[in-house]
Amino acid sequence: MPDPTFLEIKNLAIDFVTETATVEAVKGISLSIARGETLAIVGESGSGKSVTGLALTRLLPEPPAIYKSGEILLDGKNVLTMPPRELRTIRGNKIAYIFQEPSTSLNPVFTIRNQIAEAIKLHRTDVRDIDGEVIKYLDMVGIVDPEKRLHDYPHQLSGGMQQRVMIAMALSCRPELLVADEPTTALDVTIQKQIIDQLRELKQRVQMAIILITHNFGIIGGLADRVAVMFRGKIVEYGETHTVLANPQHPYTKALIQCIPQPGQKRHRLTTIDHAALEAAV
C-alpha cells in the first residue's frame, strides 16, 4: 500500500491582502496524496486551484499572500514552517512544476540544453555526463532525435514540443511529486491528448505522484485516481475519479461535467454555469 501521508494538506486557508481589501483565496481545504498516485484538482479560474498548487512549496509571494491557517505536511514536515534553505531543497528535488504556458516558462535566449542542464546541475550534483542526461530525458518525453534538439531555442519548437521540454526539465530533477498546472490549456486538442498520454505513461514508468490542476473534467478520466472539485476556495466534492464522473453529488460538479462537449451530440447551446444558483449549495 502506498503511504497516504506522503503529502497531506490540513485545513489550509490562504488570503491575499491589498490596500483596499482582503481576498479569501483558499478556505480551509484538506487533501492528501500517496506516492505514485494522481490527484486531479478541478475547478474554474479563480477557484483556488493554482494557489493551492503554488502553496505546496511556498511559491506565493508573502505579502500579498498570507497563510492564515493549516499545515502542508511533506513526509511529516510542515512546509509552512520550513526555513528558506530547507524550502530550496524541496523545490525541484521533492516537488517540481509544469505550467500551462511553456512559451512563457522557457527562457527565449537560452537553448533547450542549457535550460535543462541548469536544473540538473542545481539539483543533482552527482551527474557527470550532463548532455547525456539531457538527451535521456528529452527522449523519455517523446522528443524525436533529441541529440539534434539540444541546441534549439524555444521559438524553434511547437507548443506541444515546448511543453514536453518543460516536462523533461521537471523530471530531470527526479521529483517525487509533479504538479501539472493546466498543462494542456494552450494546446490544440490533438496535442492535449498527446501530453495527457505522456503523463500517464511517465506515471507508470517512474512511479511519480502527480497533481493535475485543470478546469476540464474531460481530460482526467484514465489519468487521475482521485479528484477534488474546488469552487470559490473550497473543496465541494472529493472522491475516486470514476465514482465522481459516474455519479457526481454536488451541483457544481454536475454543472462542470455538463459543460464537456460530447462527440456526436446534436447542436445545442453550450451549457453555462449559474453561479448565483450554486451559492446556496456551497
Automatic annotation (TrEMBL):
<dbReference type="GO" id="GO:0016887">
    <property type="term" value="F:ATP hydrolysis activity"/>
</dbReference>
<keyword id="KW-0472">Membrane</keyword>
<dbReference type="GO" id="GO:0005524">
    <property type="term" value="F:ATP binding"/>
</dbReference>
<dbReference type="GO" id="GO:0005886">
    <property type="term" value="C:plasma membrane"/>
</dbReference>
<feature type="domain" description="ABC transporter">
    <location>
        <begin position="7"/>
        <end position="257"/>
    </location>
</feature>
<dbReference type="GO" id="GO:0015833">
    <property type="term" value="P:peptide transport"/>
</dbReference>
<dbReference type="InterPro" id="IPR017871">
    <property type="entry name" value="ABC_transporter-like_CS"/>
</dbReference>
<dbReference type="InterPro" id="IPR003439">
    <property type="entry name" value="ABC_transporter-like_ATP-bd"/>
</dbReference>
<protein>
    <submittedName>
        <fullName>ABC transporter-related protein</fullName>
    </submittedName>
</protein>
<keyword id="KW-1003">Cell membrane</keyword>
<keyword id="KW-0067">ATP-binding</keyword>
<keyword id="KW-0547">Nucleotide-binding</keyword>
<dbReference type="Pfam" id="PF08352">
    <property type="entry name" value="oligo_HPY"/>
</dbReference>
<dbReference type="InterPro" id="IPR003593">
    <property type="entry name" value="AAA+_ATPase"/>
</dbReference>
<dbReference type="InterPro" id="IPR050388">
    <property type="entry name" value="ABC_Ni/Peptide_Import"/>
</dbReference>
<dbReference type="Pfam" id="PF00005">
    <property type="entry name" value="ABC_tran"/>
</dbReference>
<dbReference type="InterPro" id="IPR027417">
    <property type="entry name" value="P-loop_NTPase"/>
</dbReference>
<keyword id="KW-0813">Transport</keyword>
<dbReference type="InterPro" id="IPR013563">
    <property type="entry name" value="Oligopep_ABC_C"/>
</dbReference>
<comment type="similarity">
    <text>Belongs to the ABC transporter superfamily.</text>
</comment>
